[in-house]
Amino acid sequence: MSVNSATISAGDALEVLTEAWRAQIEAGLTTSWMLHGKPGVGKTQLVQTLADQIGAELFDIRLTTIEPQDLRGLPYYDHDTQKTLWYRPEDLPDRPGKPAILFLDELTAASPYLQPTVYGLLQERRVGRHSLPDSVLIVAAGNTVEDGAIAYEMGTALSDRLVHLHVKANAKDWLERYAVDQSLHPVVTTFLRARPDLLDTTEDSLRRGDMITCTPRSWERVSQILHSISDRRIRDIMVAGTIGRAAGADLGRVADELDSVITVDELLATSRGKRASLYPTTMNGLVGLIYGLVTQADKASLPDIIDVMADIRTLRSSDVAALPLGELTSFGFELLIRKALSNGLEDAFRDSKAYAEYAQDRRAAGAL
Questions:
Q1: Which of 15, 77, 131, 287 gives 126 a disulfide partner, CB atoms 3.0 to 4.6 angstroms apart?
Q2: Among candidate residues 125, 141, 168, the one where a domain is terminated
Q3: Same domain, yes or no, for 146 and 179?
Q4: Is the predicted pLDDT of residue 157 greater than 90, yes or no?
């Protein structure tokens, strides 16, 4: 059964759920939301990011690991009332006014025997006699049978209780709205900017019968490996076991190229007038530098990073003459400004002479 809802990026899904939260608090829109998408597309990370942004406590329930009574609670006999009462499970939020997200993960893989218990949570926001506070946003997630995952077809009784969002990997969105904020390794971000087709290869892998596939989740794991493992031989084995031999070999060539260029720390430690000869002279090298600058940007380093970024467009070496330096500078500042705004560091741009000169040049060229 196909998911005939709008297909959107993870970044757009985050915006939708953020607005859903606002509407729930301000206008009483208490509906439940369902994130569909291939394994590893970033559904869980999306919900965690939402919780962080709205200051909500996250209750993450993996429905494949529980039984109906785990949600319903355990019964006990009250001798005073001569009634059977229920101990409420601790996994359900119960603090009125406290922002919380109840995340029902792997909904489509849950046992059909569990689904009737979930119905009450999704529709009436209650299970047994326990009702969820109005400050709880309910989000479910799952895969489909077509994704090659373990899943049951979602019946109409369940699907009708949800607003459905079909999340699909989008390289530009993922790089700009997730990878940079999470400080993923510049080798990963540089590689995927040049090879966006390798962000998610699930369909191709299923068609070829390959076990290992590239997904946003696996690329995040590759980033962790690159940050943690210095031994090249060991690192290559780990990377190949995460994204496959072919993608791992291609990534290795980019890693070799970036290893041969000046590091961000060395560039920032050099005075501005002496930096020109230290810049990389290849497209991958400059893109890697840009991602490295954005990753390391903080309150202390941002003024110097703005200078380094602005000077990319002024490079005059014959080695870089054919490269789109103006476009690279604009690309870099888009990422850097986005990070600065999300961290309250925008004052650094107002105080930067280098950025003022860059902006003036852009206006003169009719680009601003």
A1: 131
A2: 168
A3: no
A4: no
Same domain, 113 and 189: no
Give one DSSP letter per residue of 102-149, joined into a string. Answer: EEEETGGGS-TTTHHHHHHHHHTSEETTEE--TTEEEEEEE--GGGTS
Q: How many domains does the chain fold into?
A: 2
**Domain with 116 in it: what CATH number?**
3.40.50.300
Query: Do 355 and 224 share a structural domain?
Result: yes
User: Of the candidates 331, 270, 328, 335, which has an alpha carbon nearest to the alpha carbon of residue 296?
Assistant: 335
Beta strands 32-36 and 163-167 are parallel
Q: CB-hemisphere CA count at 13 Å for 137?
A: 28
Q: Of 105-119, 145-159, 354-368, which gets the smallest average pLDDT?
A: 145-159
- Give first-to-last CA distance, the chain, whole Å: 47
Whole-angstrom Cα Rg for the chain = 25
Structural domain contains residue 2: no
Sequence length of the chain is 368
